[in-house]
Design goal:
Length: 83
C-alpha cells in the first residue's frame, strides 16, 4: 500500500526535483533506490498517460504560483516519463 501512495509523489519529484531546494532525495539514497524500483514497475509506468509530465507541467504553470515561477526560471525537465 505504501508503494501505491508514494508512486504519484515520486512523479512530482521527477518533474520538480531539479528545482533549487527540492532536490531532497539526493541526501536519501535508500529512498532514491526505492523510487527507481517503483518507476521500473510496469503497473506504475502504465498508471498515467505518456504525456503526464507535460500535463502536470502545464497544470502547475496555469496556477501561476511559486512553483510555476520556479519552473519558469529553471532549465526545462527531461522529456518523457520512462527511463
Amino acid at each position: 500500500m505504501v508503494d501505491a501512495a508514494f508512486a504519484p509523489v515520486f512523479r512530482y519529484v521527477d518533474l520538480f526535483g531539479h528545482l533549487p531546494g527540492l532536490n531532497f532525495l539526493e541526501a536519501m539514497p535508500e529512498v532514491s533506490r526505492w523510487r527507481k524500483a517503483l518507476q521500473a514497475r510496469l503497473s506504475v509506468r502504465n498508471a498515467v498517460a505518456d504525456d503526464y509530465p507535460q500535463r502536470l507541467h502545464a497544470f502547475v504553470l496555469g496556477k501561476r504560483g511559486a512553483l510555476a515561477r520556479a519552473l519558469l526560471l529553471a532549465a526545462p525537465p527531461a522529456s518523457g516519463r520512462r527511463s
